[in-house]
Write a structure and sequence with these properties.
Layout lengths: L7 E4 L8 E7 L2 E6 L5 E5 L3 E3 L23 E3 L3 E5 L2 H13 L4 E5 L5 H12 L3 E5 L20 H14 L7 E4 L6 H7 L3 E2 L11 H10 L9 H6 L9 E2 L7 E3 L3
Parallel strand pairs: 7-8, 7-9, 9-10, 10-11
Antiparallel strand pairs: 1-2, 1-5, 2-3, 3-4, 6-13, 11-12
Helix pairs in contact: 2-3
Length: about 260
Amino acid sequence: MTYQVGDIVTRESYHHDVVFVIVKIKNETAYLKGVFVRLEADAPLEDLRKYESEERSIDDFMMDEEEEKPHDFFYLPGKILHIDADLDYLKKCMKFYKRHQVKAIGKKIEEKEMPSKIYELLVNYQPDILIITGHDAYYPKKGNASNSSNYLNTKYFVSAVKEARRYEKSHDKLIIIAGACQSNYEELILAGANFASSPKRINIHCLDPAIIALNLAKTERSEQVDLMKLLRKTKYGANGMGGIKCQGMMYVGFPR
């Protein structure tokens, strides 16, 4: 079978578990990026199969129908600053925020540059919720999962979280959601993140951080978020994302 850049495929050797798009082909090897999962990989062309199922619309993805709110009140959802190393995933998340009418600023920044740029972005945009994400991977052959040196980009995410906490120490005034596929969850939480990936060192869906941010942005400040219910809204639940209890970030006023 003939393949070209842009084809949507799965890998037979991995039992077609992840849907990829081909981003480059060289010497009979396809270089792949997850359509939904924050994962990059490569595979021999002979291992690929074209993906036949229809891609799910982002508008249908993992968001409960929002409860109808009283019309005589007005609502000011929390503001999101989304820092992402992957432009394609960033665009999907920005579309997700727009559909749900939440103000969000998106910035595409490479992981290694995040620690040096995060503070200035926070000063400029003053968000209620900060997302720090991109790509990551845990390399078991390098050593123990507790050592951030054994990950592709966890050390940059950890440093960026620490810089964000230098800007705002309170977990209640700035909610931080950090990490990507297989990231060192414990180190990110210890660094100051409210939510992080990945407790079981698994891949996460590209929208998982955005799903958490959106729900926090649209929960009233007087209301504590149901942590278990929130995590269940993500693709892999508490295996992929975890965090601490916190209040919502939306102001409610009266009258309209």
